[in-house]
C-alpha cells in the first residue's frame, strides 16, 4: 500500500461532494496514460512479490503474546539503516546469517494498514532467468532477517495471515490502548490499531460514514464437541453507549453462530502474498488478467491459512470474505436493503471482491462469460469511448469507477495535473479485486502490469517462494501454449465462495474449464504453396453451449491432472466418477503443463531440481499428502492441552502457536530442516523439505 | 534409387495434449510421434475439401490422395507439404534464444554424411523460422543414454556406450558450421564424465553444453559436475529419447494401417504407396524462446528418412 503525500484529508461529508470531480479527473488522467502507453511494446517480463508480516511481541516464558504497534519506529530504524548501508555498513552480519549477496539491491520495506504489520518487496524486480527464480527464497529470508534485525529482541516478524487473538477482550497490543475510539468506533480494537498516517484512519472512518454504520465482519464459528449451540459471540458488548454505531449490535449486527467483528482492521490487518507481472504490451496484459482470473479461487483454497479470528476457531479457512466485509462501504440502498432513493444503483459486491470483468481482446472470450449484472457508470464509459478506448476496456474502468473515492486531500483538488495519476489511482487502488490491471505510471517508465492478489501468506519463505515461482511459471505456460481458462465470471464468483469452506482444498469441487488448449492450432507451416496448389479450407470450429466447456473438479485434479488424482498416491477422499469417455475428459493438470513448459526450456540440472522441489510442495498440498497451514493450525489447536473443544483459542494456545511459528522461522533462517522441533503435525505441513541439520 | 522423405510437425506449442508428459514418463518420443501424426491428419483434412472440389475425393480427409497433401521436389518428398510462407518469427531473430537438437539415428554413418544431414536439417529450420543462425546446436549420437538407478550408475554405464570413433570425427567436422556462422554454440547430449573427458582431450571444438536426462534423483555424479565446471560446460536437463524415431514407428506412421498416413505400401502386399526400405536418418528439434519473456513462440521437429530400393 503506497503512501500518498500528507495533506488535509476530507471527512466523508466533504469528500462526498468532491467524488464526481475526482472521478472526472481520474478518467482524464487514465485517458492520458492510456494514450501514451497503448502502443508500448516489448517490455520484458519483470515481476515482483510482496510479503506481509505481523509483528508480534513474544516471550517464551510469559504465557501471553500480543502484536507490536511499533511499526513507525521499526520503519524509521530500517530507513536510517538504508542510509548507513549505502555508506557501506549498517546491517550487521547479514552475510553471515543468511548467506545473502550484497551485490543485489537490498529489499524495500513499506507500511501497511495495520500498525502491527510490515510489507517487504525485493530491491529490484525479478526477471525470467531460471536461476533468478532461485534467488526469490533467499531474498525473502533476507527480508525477514533485516526486519528482525531492526526490532526489539522480543519482537518477531511472522507470516500468519491474521493474529489469532486480534480483538479479543483484554490486552492484545503493545502498548495497550482502550477500544471504542472516534475513528473506528470499534468495541474490539482501538483506533491505534491502524497506521496513524492520516490516510488510514480517514479511510476507515469514511468507509464507516459512507456505509452509515460500522462494517460487519461475521465469520461462521467452527462447531466443536463442546461448543455451545446456538453459539453467541461472548465477546460482544451490548451495553456500550459511546457512539451511535454502538447500536449496531443491538440491531442484529452480531447474529448467532458467527464470530462478530466490527472494524476495517479485522480485514485489512490480514497478510497475503501478492505477485505483480509486467506484460509485453497492453494486449498481453489484458490476456494475462483474464487467464489468471479463474485460477484465483483455486490458489486461494490451496494456500488456505486463516482458521482463527478473535480467539475463536472459524468454520472457514481463508481470509478473503472477511477483508471484503471489512472494507464494504456500500449503503443500505446499494446493498438492496432499502429501495433506491439517494444512491445511483444497487451494487452486488464489495469494493474488495472477486473480479467482475474480463478485458481481453481475445476472440475466445465469449459474451456468455461476462457478468450479466455488471454495474457500469455509463457517463464515464461514454467519455472513455469518446477518448478512443475500446468498449471492453472502457467497460472495465467504468465499472471500477462506480465507486466513490474514499480519501481525498483538499490540496489535490486545486488543479488537474495530467502528469500525475493520483485521481485515477484513488479509485483504482481502492478497488480490491482478486486481479488488478495496472496501467503504466504517468511517466510511462514501466509497462502494463497485472497483479495476482488472492493467495494467502504462508508460514515459511520456502512455501512463499514456491507459490510465487509457481504462478510465474503458470503465466509462462499460459503465454507459450496459448492456454484458455475462460469460464463464466459467475462461476469464478461461485468458486471464490467455495474456496472458503473448511478444507475446501480436499473436500470441495470447483468449476474449471475442461479443455485448455486451442481446438485448432495456430497456422501450420504445412499448407498450400503457389497459386496452382490447393487452398486449405477448414470449417469454423463449432461453438457449443458454454455449460459444456467446464465441469466440477477437485483441486487435486486441477493441479495434478485427472490421471494423478485417480492414482493411489493421491490421499484425497474424493472418489472420481469414471467419465464415460475417460481420455476425452482427462484434465492434464497445471503442474504437468508447467513441466511441459520446463521440458522445452534450457535449464541446468540444479535449477530444475530446485524448481521440482517447489512443484512437489504444491503437488502434495493439492493431493492432501501435505496439509495447508489452515489445517495444521487447526490440528495444533486441537491437540493443545489447553484446548477444551469449545472453539476457543485462549491466550496460552495463541502464545504457543505463535511460538511454534517463530521457531519454524528461526530454523528456516539457520538453513536447518524443520525436524526435531517437537511440533505437533509439522511434518504434515512441511514434510522433509529443505533438509535437516 | 534413393529418395529422401522429410517429415514435419509445424509449430507444436499450442497443439495441446501431445506436449504433456504422461504421468511418470521421464523420457519419451510421444511429443514427436503424436505431433507428426496430428500434422499429417490436419494436412489431410485441410486439403480434403479442395480436393473434393476438384473431383479427386469425397471430401473425407482419410480419402485425400497422397499427392494432394504431400509435395515432391526432386528427390525429396515432404510429408506433409510445407508452406514456407507461414513460417517466421514475430519479432527479429535477436530477440530469441534458438536451440536446435539434432538426433543422429543411424549408426555406421560417415562423418561427411552426418555433416550433410546436419546442413539439410539446419536449412529446414532456417527456412521455417527465417533465421540465419541458431544460438545452440546440441548433438545427440545414437546408442547413448544416461540411465540407471541413480545418476552414478548412469555415468558408469555411459562410459561404454556409443562409438567414439564415429562420434569424434563427426563432432570435429561440425566445427565448420560454427565457423560459417550457422551456429553460435555447440552442445552434446548424454555424455558422462568419461566420454566427455575423451572428447575434450581429442577434439578442438569444445561443447558449451552437455545435456543429460535426470530422473527423480537430483544427484549428478560429482566427477561430471567437476569436469563441467572446469571446462565451463553447462549441464542442462532434457527428457528426450535418444532413439527418438525408431524404424518401426516411422513405418507405422506412414504405412497403410488405421493410424498410418498411407504413404508407404505394406510389405508383401498389393497395397498402394511407395515401396522400399525406409531408414530414419535424423530428427531435428527446434525451439524459439523470446529471451527476456521466457515465452516459447515456436517449437517443432523435422525428420529425415531414406527410402532405399528393397
From TrEMBL, chain A:
| InterPro entries reported in the protein's UniProt record | GCS, Gln_synth/guanido_kin_cat_dom
A Gene Ontology biological process annotation? glutathione biosynthetic process
What Gene Ontology cellular-component terms does the record carry? glutamate-cysteine ligase complex
Name the pathway it acts in.
Answer: Sulfur metabolism; glutathione biosynthesis; glutathione from L-cysteine and L-glutamate: step 1/2
Per UniProt, the enzyme's principal EC class comes to ligase
Q: Region (Disordered) spans which residues?
A: 522-543
> Which UniProt key words apply to this protein?
ATP-binding, Glutathione biosynthesis, Ligase, Nucleotide-binding
Single GO molecular-function term?
A: ATP binding
Q: Which reaction does it catalyse?
A: L-cysteine + L-glutamate + ATP = gamma-L-glutamyl-L-cysteine + ADP + phosphate + H(+)
**Membrane-spanning parts:** none
Q: What is this protein called?
A: Glutamate--cysteine ligase
Write down the species: Coniochaeta pulveracea
UniProtKB/TrEMBL annotation, chain B:
Q: Does the keyword Heme apply?
A: no
GO molecular function list = enzyme regulator activity; glutamate-cysteine ligase catalytic subunit binding; oxidoreductase activity
Do the record's keywords include Lipid metabolism? Answer: no
A GO BP entry is: glutathione biosynthetic process
Q: Which residues form the NADP-dependent oxidoreductase domain?
A: 92-238
- Which cellular component appears as one GO term in the record? glutamate-cysteine ligase complex
Could you tell me which pathway this protein works in? Sulfur metabolism; glutathione biosynthesis; glutathione from L-cysteine and L-glutamate: step 1/2
> Per UniProt, which keywords does this protein have?
Glutathione biosynthesis, Oxidoreductase
What assembly does the database describe for this protein? Heterodimer of a catalytic heavy chain and a regulatory light chain.
* UniProt xrefs under PANTHER family: GLUTAMATE CYSTEINE LIGASE REGULATORY SUBUNIT (PTHR13295), GLUTAMATE--CYSTEINE LIGASE REGULATORY SUBUNIT (PTHR13295:SF4)
| Protein family membership | Belongs to the aldo/keto reductase family. Glutamate--cysteine ligase light chain subfamily.
Q: Know the name of this protein?
A: GCS light chain
Which source organism?
Coniochaeta pulveracea
Amino acid at each position: 500500500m503506497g503512501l500518498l503525500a500528507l495533506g488535509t484529508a476530507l471527512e466523508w461529508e466533504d469528500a462526498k461532494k468532491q467524488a464526481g470531480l475526482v472521478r472526472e479527473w481520474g478518467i482524464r488522467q487514465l485517458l492520458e496514460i492510456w494514450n501514451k502507453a497503448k502502443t508500448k511494446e516489448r517490455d520484458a517480463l519483470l515481476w515482483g512479490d510482496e510479503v506481509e508480516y505481523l509483528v508480534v511481541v513474544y516471550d517464551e516464558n510469559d504465557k501471553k503474546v500480543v502484536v507490536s504497534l511499533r511499526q513507525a519506529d521499526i520503519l524509521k530504524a530500517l530507513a536510517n539503516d538504508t542510509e548507513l548501508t549505502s555508506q557501506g555498513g549498517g546491517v550487521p552480519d547479514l552475510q553471515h546469517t543468511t548467506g545473502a549477496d550484497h551485490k543485489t539491491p537490498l529489499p524495500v520495506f513499506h507500511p501497511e494498514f495495520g500498525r502491527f504489520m510490515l510489507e517487504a518487496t525485493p530491491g529490484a524486480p525479478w526477471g525470467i532467468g531460471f536461476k533468478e527464480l532461485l534467488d526469490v527464497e533467499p531474498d525473502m529470508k533476507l527480508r525477514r532477517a533485516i526486519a528482525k534485525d531492526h526490532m526489539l529482541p522480543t519482537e518477531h516478524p511472522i507470516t500468519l495471515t491474521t493474529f489469532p487473538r486480534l480483538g479479543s477482550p483484554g490486552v492484545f497490543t503493545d502498548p495497550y490502548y482502550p477500544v471504542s475510539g472516534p475513528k473506528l468506533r470499534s468495541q474490539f480494537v482501538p483506533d491505534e490499531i491502524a497506521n496513524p498516517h492520516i490516510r488510514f484512519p480517514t479511510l476507515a472512518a469514511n468507509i464507516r460514514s459512507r456505509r452509515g454504520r460500522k462494517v460487519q465482519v461475521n465469520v461462521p464459528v467452527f462447531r466443536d464437541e463442546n461448543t455451545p449451540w446456538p453459539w453467541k459471540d461472548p465477546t460482544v458488548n451490548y451495553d456500550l453507549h459511546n457512539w451511535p454505531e454502538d447500536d449496531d449490535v443491538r440491531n442484529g449486527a452480531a447474529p448467532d453462530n458467527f464470530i462478530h467483528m466490527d472494524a476495517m482492521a479485522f480485514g485489512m490487518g490480514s497478510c497475503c502474498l501478492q505477485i505483480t507481472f509486467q506484460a509485453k504490451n497492453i494486449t498481453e496484459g489484458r490476456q494475462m488478467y483474464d487467464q489468471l482470473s479463474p485460477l484465483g479461487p483455486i490458489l486461494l483454497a490451496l494456500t488456505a491459512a486463516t482458521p482463527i479470528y478473535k480467539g475463536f476457531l472459524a468454520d472457514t479457512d481463508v481470509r478473503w470474505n472477511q477483508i471484503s466485509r471489512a472494507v464494504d462501504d456500500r449503503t443500505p440502498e446499494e446493498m438492496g436493503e432499502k429501495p433506491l432513493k439517494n444512491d445511483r444503483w444497487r451494487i452486488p459486491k464489495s469494493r474488495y471482491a472477486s473480479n467482475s470483468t474480463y478485458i481481453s481482446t481475445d476472440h475466445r472470450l465469449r459474451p456468455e462469460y461476462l457478468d450479466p449484472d455488471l454495474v457500469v457508470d455509463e457517463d464515464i464509459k461514454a467519455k472513455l469511448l469518446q477518448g478512443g478506448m475500446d468498449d471492453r476496456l472502457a467497460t472495465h474502468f467504468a465499472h471500477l469507477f462506480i465507486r466513490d473515492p474514499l480519501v481525498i486531500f483538499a490540496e489535490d483538488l486545486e488543479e488537474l495535473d495530467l502528469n500525475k495519476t493520483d485521481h485515477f489511482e484513488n479509485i483504482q487502488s481502492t478497488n480490491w479485486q482478486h486481479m488488478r490491471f495496472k496501467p503504466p505510471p504517468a511517466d510511462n517508465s514501466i509497462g502494463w502490469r497485472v497483479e495476482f492478489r488472492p493467495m494467502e501468506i504462508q508460514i515459511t519463505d520456502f512455501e512463499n517462494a514456491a507459490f510465487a515461482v509457481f504462478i510465474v511459471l503458470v503465466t509462462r505456460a499460459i503465454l507459450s501454449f496459448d492456454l484458455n481458462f475462460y469460464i463464466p465470471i459467475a462461476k469464478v464468483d461461485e468458486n471464490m465462495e467455495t474456496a472458503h469452506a473448511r478444507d475446501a482444498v480436499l473436500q470441495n469441487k470447483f468449476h474449471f474449464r475442461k479443455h485448455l488448449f486451442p481446438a485448432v492450432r495456430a497456422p501450420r507451416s504445412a499448407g498450400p504453396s503457389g497459386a496452382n496448389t490447393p487452398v486449405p479450407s477448414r470449417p469454423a470450429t463449432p461453438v457449443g453451449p458454454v455449460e459444456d466447456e467446464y465441469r466440477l473438479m477437485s483441486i487435486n485434479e486441477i493441479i495434478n491432472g485427472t490421471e494423478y488424482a485417480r492414482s493411489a498416491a493421491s490421499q484425497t477422499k474424493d472418489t472420481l466418477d469414471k467419465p464415460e469417455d475417460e481420455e476425452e475428459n482427462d484434465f492434464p493438470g497445471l503442474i504437468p503443463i508447467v513441466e511441459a513448459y520446463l521440458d522445452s526450456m534450457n535449464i541446468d540440472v540444479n535449477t530444475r531440481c530446485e524448481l521440482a522441489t517447489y512443484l512437489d510442495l504444491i503437488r502434495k498440498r493439492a493431493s492432501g499428502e501435505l496439509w495447508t497451514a489452515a489445517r495444521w493450525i487447526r490440528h495444533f489447536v486441537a491437540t493443545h492441552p489447553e484446548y477444551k473443544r469449545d472453539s476457543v483459542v485462549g491466550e496460552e494456545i495463541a502464545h504457543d502457536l505463535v511460538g511454534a511459528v517463530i521457531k519454524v522461522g528461526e530454523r528456516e533462517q539457520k538453513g536447518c530442516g524443520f525436524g526435531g522441533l517437537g511440533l505437533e503435525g509439522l511434518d504434515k505441513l512441511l514434510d522433509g523439505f529443505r533438509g535437516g541439520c | 534409387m534413393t529418395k529422401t522423405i522429410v517429415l514435419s510437425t509445424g509449430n507444436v506449442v499450442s497443439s495441446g495434449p501431445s506436449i504433456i508428459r504422461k504421468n511418470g514418463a521421464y523420457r519419451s518420443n510421444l511429443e514427436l510421434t503424436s505431433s507428426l501424426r496430428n500434422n499429417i491428419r490436419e494436412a489431410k483434412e485441410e486439403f480434403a475439401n479442395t480436393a473434393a472440389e476438384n473431383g479427386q475425393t469425397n471430401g473425407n480427409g482419410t480419402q485425400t490422395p497422397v499427392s494432394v497433401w504431400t509435395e515432391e521436389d526432386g528427390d525429396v518428398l515432404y510429408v506433409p507439404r510445407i508452406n514456407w510462407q507461414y513460417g517466421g518469427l514475430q519479432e527479429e531473430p535477436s530477440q530469441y534464444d534458438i536451440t536446435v537438437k539434432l538426433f543422429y539415428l543411424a549408426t555406421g554413418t560417415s562423418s561427411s554424411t552426418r555433416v550433410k544431414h546436419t546442413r539439410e536439417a539446419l536449412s529446414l529450420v532456417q527456412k521455417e523460422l527465417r533465421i540465419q543462425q541458431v544460438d545452440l546446436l546440441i548433438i545427440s549420437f545414437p546408442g547413448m543414454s544416461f540411465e540407471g538407478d541413480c545418476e552414478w550408475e548412469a555415468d558408469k554405464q555411459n562410459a561404454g556406450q556409443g562409438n567414439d570413433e564415429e562420434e569424434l570425427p563427426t563432432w570435429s567436422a561440425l566445427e565448420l558450421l560454427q565457423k560459417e556462422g550457422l551456429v553460435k554454440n555447440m552442445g552434446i547430449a548424454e555424455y558422462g564424465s568419461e566420454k566427455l573427458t575423451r572428447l575434450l582431450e581429442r577434439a578442438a571444438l569444445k561443447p558449451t553444453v552437455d545435456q543429460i536426462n535426470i530422473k527423480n534423483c537430483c544427484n549428478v555424479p560429482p566427477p561430471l559436475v567437476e569436469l563441467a565446471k572446469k571446462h565451463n560446460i553447462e549441464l542442462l536437463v532434457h527428457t528426450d529419447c535418444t532413439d527418438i524415431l525408431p524404424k518401426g514407428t516411422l513405418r507405422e506412421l506412414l504405412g497403410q494401417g488405421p493410424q498410418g498416413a498411407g504413404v508407404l505400401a505394406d510389405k508383401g502386399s498389393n497395397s498402394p504407396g511407395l515401396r522400399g526400405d525406409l531408414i530414419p536418418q535424423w530428427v531435428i528439434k527446434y525451439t524459439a524462446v523470446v529471451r527476456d519473456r521466457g515465452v516459447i513462440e515456436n517449437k517443432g521437429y523435422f525428420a529425415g528418412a531414406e527410402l532405399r530400393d528393397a
